[in-house]
Design a protein that fits this description.
This protein is mainly alpha-helical. It has 2 helices and no strands. The radius of gyration is 20 Å and the shape is rod-shaped. The relative contact order is 0.08.
Length: about 45
């Protein structure tokens, strides 16, 4: 029973790390697009 609990904990931990790694930065796309548009417009 303890082995099953350890296995579940390891699997859930690795899935959590994989999911967080796939998400990338937690910044909405609208903010990054607005920042890049402001940067390009200020250089013109």
């Amino acid at each position: 029973m303890k082995n099953l609990l350890k296995l579940i904990m390891i699997v859930s931990f690795t899935l959590t790390l994989i999911a967080c790694g796939r998400m990338g930065d937690l910044v909405p796309d609208t903010d990054t697009q607005a920042a890049s548009e402001n940067a390009t417009s200020s250089t013109d």
